[in-house]
Amino acid sequence: MGWEGHRRGSPAYRRILIALLGAGIATFAQLYSPQGILPLIASDLEVDPSRASLSISAATTGLAVSVLPWSLVADRIGRVTAMRIALVSATVLGLCMPWCPWFDLLLGVRILEGVALGGIPGVAVTYLSEEIDRTHAAVAAGTYVAGTTIGGLAGRLIAAPIADAADWRLGAFAVAVLAAIATAVFFIVTPRPQGFRSHPASVRSVLRMSGRLMRTPGLVVLYGQGFLLMGGFVAAYNYLTFRLEAAPFFIPIGLASLLFLAYLAGTVSSRLVGGLAGRTGRKPLLLGSTAVMIAGTLLTLSPSLVVVVVGLVVLTGGFFGAHSVASGWAGARAEQGRSQSASLYNLWYYAGSSVFGFLGGIAWSHLGWAGVVVMVTGLALLAAVWAATTPEDAPRGTRA
After folding, report:
1. Nearest alpha carbon to residue 238 among 27, 66, 51, 47
2. What local confidence, expressed as pLDDT, does residue 395 receive?
3. Mean pLDDT, to the nearest integer, of 243-247?
Protein backbone atom coordinates (compact mmCIF):
# COMPACT_ATOMS: atom_id res chain seq x y z
CA MET A 1 0.00 0.00 0.00
CA GLY A 2 1.43 3.41 -0.97
CA TRP A 3 2.00 6.45 1.20
CA GLU A 4 -1.33 8.06 2.13
CA GLY A 5 -0.08 10.97 4.19
CA HIS A 6 -0.11 12.03 7.82
CA ARG A 7 -3.54 12.08 9.37
CA ARG A 8 -4.97 15.05 11.23
CA GLY A 9 -3.99 15.06 14.89
CA SER A 10 -0.81 13.04 14.50
CA PRO A 11 2.49 14.49 15.82
CA ALA A 12 3.91 14.77 12.30
CA TYR A 13 0.76 16.57 11.09
CA ARG A 14 1.13 19.13 13.87
CA ARG A 15 4.84 19.59 13.18
CA ILE A 16 4.14 20.23 9.49
CA LEU A 17 1.60 22.92 10.33
CA ILE A 18 3.97 24.56 12.83
CA ALA A 19 6.78 24.44 10.25
CA LEU A 20 4.60 26.05 7.60
CA LEU A 21 3.47 28.64 10.12
CA GLY A 22 7.13 29.57 10.48
CA ALA A 23 7.57 29.64 6.70
CA GLY A 24 4.43 31.75 6.30
CA ILE A 25 5.58 34.27 8.90
CA ALA A 26 9.07 34.51 7.38
CA THR A 27 7.65 34.96 3.88
CA PHE A 28 4.73 37.30 4.35
CA ALA A 29 6.18 39.42 7.14
CA GLN A 30 9.02 40.38 4.78
CA LEU A 31 6.92 40.59 1.63
CA TYR A 32 4.47 43.17 2.96
CA SER A 33 6.27 44.91 5.83
CA PRO A 34 6.76 48.13 3.76
CA GLN A 35 3.00 48.40 3.26
CA GLY A 36 2.32 50.06 6.60
CA ILE A 37 5.23 52.49 6.27
CA LEU A 38 4.82 53.59 2.64
CA PRO A 39 4.22 57.27 3.57
CA LEU A 40 7.51 57.31 5.52
CA ILE A 41 9.41 55.64 2.66
CA ALA A 42 7.89 58.09 0.20
CA SER A 43 8.89 61.07 2.34
CA ASP A 44 12.41 59.87 3.18
CA LEU A 45 13.35 58.79 -0.34
CA GLU A 46 11.41 61.62 -2.01
CA VAL A 47 9.04 59.62 -4.22
CA ASP A 48 5.27 59.89 -4.77
CA PRO A 49 2.77 57.34 -3.35
CA SER A 50 2.41 55.25 -6.52
CA ARG A 51 6.20 55.02 -6.88
CA ALA A 52 6.60 54.19 -3.19
CA SER A 53 4.15 51.32 -3.69
CA LEU A 54 6.66 49.79 -6.10
CA SER A 55 8.54 48.61 -3.00
CA ILE A 56 5.66 46.15 -2.66
CA SER A 57 5.15 45.51 -6.37
CA ALA A 58 8.87 44.87 -6.96
CA ALA A 59 8.87 42.01 -4.46
CA THR A 60 5.60 40.52 -5.66
CA THR A 61 6.79 40.75 -9.28
CA GLY A 62 9.97 38.88 -8.37
CA LEU A 63 7.88 36.29 -6.60
CA ALA A 64 5.45 35.93 -9.50
CA VAL A 65 8.13 35.29 -12.11
CA SER A 66 10.01 32.83 -9.90
CA VAL A 67 7.28 30.44 -8.78
CA LEU A 68 7.50 28.23 -11.86
CA PRO A 69 11.31 27.97 -11.76
CA TRP A 70 11.06 27.14 -8.06
CA SER A 71 8.55 24.37 -8.82
CA LEU A 72 11.12 22.89 -11.21
CA VAL A 73 13.85 23.09 -8.57
CA ALA A 74 11.55 21.57 -5.93
CA ASP A 75 10.66 18.69 -8.26
CA ARG A 76 14.35 17.85 -8.42
CA ILE A 77 15.73 18.47 -4.93
CA GLY A 78 12.63 18.15 -2.77
CA ARG A 79 10.06 20.55 -1.34
CA VAL A 80 11.66 20.99 2.08
CA THR A 81 15.16 21.58 0.70
CA ALA A 82 13.85 24.12 -1.79
CA MET A 83 11.92 25.99 0.90
CA ARG A 84 14.97 26.08 3.18
CA ILE A 85 17.12 27.61 0.42
CA ALA A 86 14.39 30.14 -0.35
CA LEU A 87 13.92 31.20 3.28
CA VAL A 88 17.61 31.66 3.99
CA SER A 89 18.18 33.66 0.79
CA ALA A 90 15.18 35.90 1.38
CA THR A 91 16.08 36.55 5.00
CA VAL A 92 19.64 37.59 4.14
CA LEU A 93 18.29 40.01 1.54
CA GLY A 94 15.67 41.23 3.99
CA LEU A 95 18.35 42.08 6.53
CA CYS A 96 20.17 44.14 3.87
CA MET A 97 17.18 45.90 2.29
CA PRO A 98 16.52 48.60 4.97
CA TRP A 99 20.02 50.01 4.59
CA CYS A 100 19.74 50.77 0.87
CA PRO A 101 20.53 54.50 0.50
CA TRP A 102 18.65 54.96 -2.80
CA PHE A 103 15.15 54.01 -3.83
CA ASP A 104 16.25 52.33 -7.07
CA LEU A 105 18.71 50.13 -5.17
CA LEU A 106 15.97 49.27 -2.68
CA LEU A 107 13.74 48.18 -5.56
CA GLY A 108 16.51 45.95 -6.92
CA VAL A 109 16.95 44.23 -3.56
CA ARG A 110 13.19 43.84 -3.20
CA ILE A 111 12.97 42.15 -6.62
CA LEU A 112 15.67 39.65 -5.57
CA GLU A 113 13.92 39.15 -2.23
CA GLY A 114 10.71 38.37 -4.07
CA VAL A 115 12.51 35.89 -6.34
CA ALA A 116 13.79 34.10 -3.23
CA LEU A 117 10.37 34.12 -1.57
CA GLY A 118 8.88 32.52 -4.69
CA GLY A 119 10.16 29.22 -3.33
CA ILE A 120 7.54 29.15 -0.58
CA PRO A 121 3.88 29.68 -1.62
CA GLY A 122 3.46 27.20 -4.50
CA VAL A 123 5.92 24.68 -3.08
CA ALA A 124 4.24 24.74 0.34
CA VAL A 125 0.83 23.81 -1.10
CA THR A 126 2.37 20.95 -3.10
CA TYR A 127 4.27 19.82 0.00
CA LEU A 128 0.99 19.64 1.91
CA SER A 129 -0.65 17.57 -0.82
CA GLU A 130 2.23 15.06 -0.62
CA GLU A 131 2.57 14.82 3.15
CA ILE A 132 -1.01 15.18 4.45
CA ASP A 133 -3.75 12.56 4.12
CA ARG A 134 -6.07 13.48 1.24
CA THR A 135 -9.14 13.69 3.48
CA HIS A 136 -7.50 16.42 5.56
CA ALA A 137 -5.70 18.35 2.81
CA ALA A 138 -8.30 21.15 2.56
CA VAL A 139 -8.20 21.75 6.31
CA ALA A 140 -4.40 21.77 6.28
CA ALA A 141 -4.34 24.20 3.33
CA GLY A 142 -6.75 26.50 5.15
CA THR A 143 -4.54 26.36 8.24
CA TYR A 144 -1.50 27.24 6.14
CA VAL A 145 -3.28 30.24 4.59
CA ALA A 146 -4.28 31.29 8.12
CA GLY A 147 -0.60 31.19 9.03
CA THR A 148 0.28 33.45 6.12
CA THR A 149 -2.15 36.06 7.45
CA ILE A 150 -0.32 35.99 10.80
CA GLY A 151 2.93 36.63 8.95
CA GLY A 152 1.47 39.52 6.99
CA LEU A 153 0.01 40.99 10.17
CA ALA A 154 3.23 40.60 12.16
CA GLY A 155 5.29 42.36 9.52
CA ARG A 156 3.02 45.37 9.48
CA LEU A 157 2.50 45.60 13.24
CA ILE A 158 6.22 45.44 13.96
CA ALA A 159 7.47 47.74 11.19
CA ALA A 160 5.02 50.63 11.53
CA PRO A 161 5.25 51.44 15.28
CA ILE A 162 9.05 51.21 15.26
CA ALA A 163 9.20 53.30 12.10
CA ASP A 164 6.89 55.91 13.61
CA ALA A 165 8.87 56.11 16.84
CA ALA A 166 12.37 55.90 15.35
CA ASP A 167 13.00 55.26 11.66
CA TRP A 168 11.41 53.17 8.89
CA ARG A 169 14.74 51.42 8.33
CA LEU A 170 14.80 50.13 11.89
CA GLY A 171 11.19 48.98 11.54
CA ALA A 172 11.95 47.00 8.38
CA PHE A 173 15.11 45.53 9.92
CA ALA A 174 13.15 44.32 12.97
CA VAL A 175 10.82 42.43 10.61
CA ALA A 176 13.81 40.74 8.96
CA VAL A 177 15.04 39.62 12.38
CA LEU A 178 11.60 38.09 13.03
CA ALA A 179 11.87 36.31 9.67
CA ALA A 180 15.23 34.87 10.68
CA ILE A 181 13.70 33.43 13.86
CA ALA A 182 10.74 31.99 11.93
CA THR A 183 13.15 30.43 9.43
CA ALA A 184 14.98 28.73 12.29
CA VAL A 185 11.66 27.27 13.48
CA PHE A 186 11.04 25.84 10.02
CA PHE A 187 14.47 24.17 10.01
CA ILE A 188 13.99 22.68 13.46
CA VAL A 189 10.45 21.27 13.40
CA THR A 190 9.90 20.10 9.80
CA PRO A 191 9.60 16.28 9.79
CA ARG A 192 11.41 14.13 7.26
CA PRO A 193 9.45 14.14 3.97
CA GLN A 194 7.84 10.82 3.07
CA GLY A 195 5.59 11.67 0.13
CA PHE A 196 8.15 13.28 -2.15
CA ARG A 197 9.36 11.42 -5.22
CA SER A 198 11.98 13.12 -7.36
CA HIS A 199 10.66 14.32 -10.72
CA PRO A 200 13.65 15.33 -12.86
CA ALA A 201 11.47 17.43 -15.12
CA SER A 202 13.06 19.57 -17.82
CA VAL A 203 12.31 23.21 -18.41
CA ARG A 204 10.60 22.19 -21.65
CA SER A 205 8.32 19.71 -19.89
CA VAL A 206 7.39 22.26 -17.23
CA LEU A 207 6.56 24.85 -19.87
CA ARG A 208 4.58 22.27 -21.85
CA MET A 209 2.59 21.27 -18.76
CA SER A 210 2.05 24.91 -17.83
CA GLY A 211 0.77 25.63 -21.32
CA ARG A 212 -1.63 22.71 -21.05
CA LEU A 213 -2.91 23.95 -17.69
CA MET A 214 -3.35 27.48 -19.05
CA ARG A 215 -5.58 26.03 -21.78
CA THR A 216 -7.85 24.37 -19.20
CA PRO A 217 -10.82 26.74 -18.70
CA GLY A 218 -11.68 25.54 -15.19
CA LEU A 219 -8.14 26.21 -14.00
CA VAL A 220 -7.81 29.56 -15.78
CA VAL A 221 -10.89 30.74 -13.88
CA LEU A 222 -9.16 29.93 -10.60
CA TYR A 223 -5.91 31.61 -11.62
CA GLY A 224 -8.03 34.63 -12.56
CA GLN A 225 -9.53 34.70 -9.06
CA GLY A 226 -6.08 35.06 -7.57
CA PHE A 227 -5.09 37.77 -10.07
CA LEU A 228 -8.19 39.92 -9.60
CA LEU A 229 -8.94 39.46 -5.91
CA MET A 230 -5.34 39.77 -4.71
CA GLY A 231 -4.87 42.84 -6.89
CA GLY A 232 -7.82 44.57 -5.28
CA PHE A 233 -6.88 43.48 -1.77
CA VAL A 234 -3.31 44.77 -1.98
CA ALA A 235 -4.43 48.05 -3.54
CA ALA A 236 -6.81 48.64 -0.63
CA TYR A 237 -4.14 48.02 1.98
CA ASN A 238 -1.40 49.90 0.10
CA TYR A 239 -3.27 53.20 0.18
CA LEU A 240 -5.14 52.79 3.45
CA THR A 241 -2.34 54.42 5.45
CA PHE A 242 -2.24 57.38 3.04
CA ARG A 243 -5.96 57.85 3.58
CA LEU A 244 -5.82 57.55 7.36
CA GLU A 245 -3.02 60.08 7.79
CA ALA A 246 -5.08 62.64 5.84
CA ALA A 247 -8.39 64.39 6.61
CA PRO A 248 -10.74 63.65 8.29
CA PHE A 249 -8.74 61.12 10.33
CA PHE A 250 -5.18 62.50 10.77
CA ILE A 251 -4.00 59.25 12.38
CA PRO A 252 -0.24 58.73 13.01
CA ILE A 253 1.25 55.82 11.10
CA GLY A 254 2.15 53.92 14.27
CA LEU A 255 -1.45 54.05 15.47
CA ALA A 256 -2.86 53.36 12.00
CA SER A 257 -0.87 50.13 11.92
CA LEU A 258 -3.25 48.71 14.52
CA LEU A 259 -5.87 48.53 11.79
CA PHE A 260 -3.82 45.73 10.28
CA LEU A 261 -5.21 43.63 13.13
CA ALA A 262 -8.06 43.17 10.67
CA TYR A 263 -5.79 40.49 9.21
CA LEU A 264 -6.94 38.27 12.06
CA ALA A 265 -10.30 38.09 10.30
CA GLY A 266 -8.43 36.43 7.44
CA THR A 267 -6.79 34.01 9.87
CA VAL A 268 -10.24 32.92 11.03
CA SER A 269 -12.02 32.94 7.68
CA SER A 270 -9.37 30.97 5.78
CA ARG A 271 -9.35 28.28 8.47
CA LEU A 272 -13.16 28.19 8.63
CA VAL A 273 -13.65 28.08 4.86
CA GLY A 274 -10.98 25.38 4.52
CA GLY A 275 -12.94 23.21 6.92
CA LEU A 276 -16.24 23.79 5.11
CA ALA A 277 -14.93 23.17 1.59
CA GLY A 278 -15.31 19.40 1.70
CA ARG A 279 -18.88 19.57 3.04
CA THR A 280 -20.58 22.43 1.23
CA GLY A 281 -18.61 22.57 -2.02
CA ARG A 282 -16.04 25.09 -3.13
CA LYS A 283 -18.01 27.22 -5.58
CA PRO A 284 -20.65 28.57 -3.13
CA LEU A 285 -17.88 29.39 -0.65
CA LEU A 286 -15.85 31.18 -3.31
CA LEU A 287 -18.78 33.30 -4.48
CA GLY A 288 -19.95 33.99 -0.94
CA SER A 289 -16.50 35.05 0.22
CA THR A 290 -16.13 37.40 -2.76
CA ALA A 291 -19.50 38.99 -1.97
CA VAL A 292 -18.34 39.55 1.61
CA MET A 293 -15.16 41.21 0.29
CA ILE A 294 -17.21 43.58 -1.88
CA ALA A 295 -19.47 44.52 1.04
CA GLY A 296 -16.48 45.29 3.25
CA THR A 297 -14.84 47.41 0.55
CA LEU A 298 -17.94 49.56 0.18
CA LEU A 299 -18.14 50.10 3.95
CA THR A 300 -14.70 51.73 3.92
CA LEU A 301 -16.18 54.71 2.06
CA SER A 302 -17.70 55.89 5.32
CA PRO A 303 -16.26 59.00 7.03
CA SER A 304 -16.64 57.19 10.36
CA LEU A 305 -13.46 55.49 11.55
CA VAL A 306 -15.50 52.78 13.31
CA VAL A 307 -17.31 51.88 10.08
CA VAL A 308 -14.02 51.93 8.16
CA VAL A 309 -12.55 49.46 10.66
CA VAL A 310 -15.59 47.19 10.37
CA GLY A 311 -15.37 47.39 6.59
CA LEU A 312 -11.69 46.50 6.66
CA VAL A 313 -12.38 43.45 8.84
CA VAL A 314 -15.16 42.29 6.52
CA LEU A 315 -13.07 42.92 3.39
CA THR A 316 -10.13 40.98 4.82
CA GLY A 317 -12.22 38.03 5.98
CA GLY A 318 -13.91 37.79 2.60
CA PHE A 319 -10.68 37.97 0.65
CA PHE A 320 -8.86 35.29 2.60
CA GLY A 321 -11.89 33.02 2.49
CA ALA A 322 -11.93 33.29 -1.30
CA HIS A 323 -8.15 32.84 -1.53
CA SER A 324 -8.26 29.73 0.65
CA VAL A 325 -10.85 28.15 -1.65
CA ALA A 326 -9.27 29.17 -4.95
CA SER A 327 -5.69 28.22 -4.04
CA GLY A 328 -6.66 24.78 -2.77
CA TRP A 329 -8.98 24.18 -5.73
CA ALA A 330 -6.27 25.13 -8.25
CA GLY A 331 -4.09 22.31 -6.95
CA ALA A 332 -6.85 19.75 -6.50
CA ARG A 333 -8.56 20.38 -9.85
CA ALA A 334 -5.43 19.69 -11.91
CA GLU A 335 -5.44 16.04 -12.98
CA GLN A 336 -1.76 16.31 -13.88
CA GLY A 337 0.96 18.78 -12.96
CA ARG A 338 -0.41 19.76 -9.56
CA SER A 339 2.89 21.39 -8.63
CA GLN A 340 2.78 23.53 -11.77
CA SER A 341 -0.89 24.35 -11.20
CA ALA A 342 -0.18 25.60 -7.67
CA SER A 343 2.73 27.62 -9.06
CA LEU A 344 0.60 29.13 -11.83
CA TYR A 345 -2.02 30.17 -9.29
CA ASN A 346 0.68 31.93 -7.28
CA LEU A 347 2.15 33.49 -10.43
CA TRP A 348 -1.16 35.14 -11.29
CA TYR A 349 -1.93 35.88 -7.64
CA TYR A 350 1.24 37.93 -7.19
CA ALA A 351 1.05 39.37 -10.69
CA GLY A 352 -2.28 40.84 -9.62
CA SER A 353 -0.65 42.26 -6.51
CA SER A 354 2.08 43.88 -8.59
CA VAL A 355 -0.15 45.32 -11.31
CA PHE A 356 -3.10 46.58 -9.31
CA GLY A 357 -1.01 47.52 -6.28
CA PHE A 358 0.62 50.10 -8.54
CA LEU A 359 -2.52 51.07 -10.49
CA GLY A 360 -4.27 51.72 -7.20
CA GLY A 361 -1.82 54.58 -6.69
CA ILE A 362 -3.00 56.20 -9.90
CA ALA A 363 -6.60 55.82 -8.74
CA TRP A 364 -5.65 57.33 -5.38
CA SER A 365 -3.79 60.27 -6.92
CA HIS A 366 -6.64 61.21 -9.26
CA LEU A 367 -9.82 60.20 -7.41
CA GLY A 368 -8.83 59.65 -3.80
CA TRP A 369 -10.12 56.76 -1.74
CA ALA A 370 -13.33 56.56 -3.78
CA GLY A 371 -11.22 55.75 -6.83
CA VAL A 372 -9.47 52.94 -4.99
CA VAL A 373 -12.82 51.53 -3.82
CA VAL A 374 -14.25 51.62 -7.35
CA MET A 375 -11.23 49.72 -8.66
CA VAL A 376 -11.28 47.10 -5.89
CA THR A 377 -15.04 46.56 -6.19
CA GLY A 378 -14.84 46.28 -9.96
CA LEU A 379 -12.09 43.66 -9.76
CA ALA A 380 -14.04 41.60 -7.23
CA LEU A 381 -17.25 41.78 -9.29
CA LEU A 382 -15.39 40.63 -12.39
CA ALA A 383 -13.89 37.73 -10.41
CA ALA A 384 -17.33 36.71 -9.10
CA VAL A 385 -18.96 36.76 -12.54
CA TRP A 386 -16.09 34.70 -13.93
CA ALA A 387 -16.22 32.21 -11.05
CA ALA A 388 -19.95 31.73 -11.59
CA THR A 389 -19.17 30.20 -14.99
CA THR A 390 -17.03 27.33 -13.64
CA PRO A 391 -18.61 23.99 -12.70
CA GLU A 392 -18.50 22.92 -9.07
CA ASP A 393 -16.38 19.84 -9.67
CA ALA A 394 -13.84 18.73 -12.22
CA PRO A 395 -14.12 15.12 -13.41
CA ARG A 396 -11.43 13.93 -11.02
CA GLY A 397 -9.87 15.05 -7.77
CA THR A 398 -11.83 18.22 -7.24
CA ARG A 399 -12.46 17.75 -3.58
CA ALA A 400 -9.71 17.33 -1.12
Report:
1. 51
2. 40
3. 87
DSSP letter for each residue of 334-375: -SS-HHHHHHHHHHHHHHHHHHHHHHHHHHHHHHHHHHHHHH
Domains in the chain, please, with CATH?
11-387 (1.20.1250.20)
State the pLDDT confidence band at 363, using cuts at 50, 70 and 90.
very high
Provide the phi-psi class of 5: left if phi over 0, else alpha when psi is between -120 and 50, else beta: left
pLDDT at position 149: 77
Quickly list DSSP for 60-100: HHHHHHHHHHHHHHHHHH-HHHHHHHHHHHHHHHHHHGGG-
How far is the C-alpha of 26 from the C-alpha of 35, rounded, in Å?
A: 16
Check residues 1 and 21 and name the one with the higher pLDDT: 21
Amino acid at 100: C
What is the spatial distance between Cα 251 and Cα 244, in angstroms, rounded to a whole number?
Answer: 6
Q: DSSP state, 8?
A: T
Q: What SS3 state is found at 6? A: strand
pLDDT at 338 over 80: no
pTM exceeds 0.85, yes or no: no
The full DSSP string for 234-299 is: HHHHHHHHHHHTSTTT---HHHHGGGGGGHHHHHHHHHHHHHHHHHH-HHHHHHHHHHHHHHHHHH
132 forms beta bridges with 6
